[in-house]
Amino acid sequence: MAKVDVVERVTEIIAEVGAPLGIELVDLEYKREGRDMVVRVFLEKREGGINLDDCADVSRQLSDILDVEDFMPERYTLEVSSPGICRPLKKVADYERFLGHLIKVKTFEMLADEAGNKRKTFTGKLTGIADGVIGIDLTEGQKARVPLDKVAKANLEFEF
Q1: 30, 40, 80, 158: least surrounded by Cβ within 10 Å?
Q2: Transmembrane region positions?
């Protein structure tokens, strides 16, 4: 099974296993580390937050299904955890949910903020998302608008 197919199937399984528990997939990594592949699953639970027991439940169920379906093309390690406090922002719904929070965005290419300063990293308060563009009030005082298709990586930042 191709890498894309593995990711799609694991995503489907997590949705099936997690939905009854109120658990959602935040991110999924399937990549080579050393000689083996790693399936790294990041989960969240909107009501009450994700805990160790939730992760263990999903891990056991996912592992059992992966063993039965046996579609993984090579040896792998399964890791299931919360996304942590610097949670990635992957979907439009993530940006909508975390309006007003401090975020860090890295782009594929240099982009200008409203003052004309070019950069690839934007840190500030998420002020909005519309028409595929996120608005950020930068920590330096400027504003920026970053198209989602230019975002290489985005995550929440811890506020002290």
Answers
A1: 158
A2: none
